Amino acid sequence: MTPLGDVHHVGITVRDMEESLQWYERMFGVTPEFIASGSGSDLSKAVGVPDCNLRFAFLRFGSCVVELLHYENEREESFERSNA
Description:
Blueprint: E1 9-13, H1 17-28, E2 34-39, H2 41-47, E3 53-61, E4 64-71
Parallel strand pairs: 1-4
Antiparallel strand pairs: 2-3, 3-4
C-alpha cells in the first residue's frame, strides 16, 4: 500500500448546509473557517456540474479540512452529484 502523506482536504456533498454545520458543531465542536458561494462556467468546469450554483464551507480538523459542498441547483437524483 502506498502512503498518502498529508491530506489537505476532503469534500463532502450535503443536502442542507445549515443542518450539516449544526451537526458538525454538535458532534466535533468545530465551526466553519469560512462559508462562501460560487457559480459560473469556471466552477462548473472544475466540479463537472453544468450551470453549477454552489455553497461551500471549510471546517478544520487539525491539519485537514472538511469541505462541505451544497449544490443549490435542483436535483434529479440524490446520487447525481458524483464529483465529491
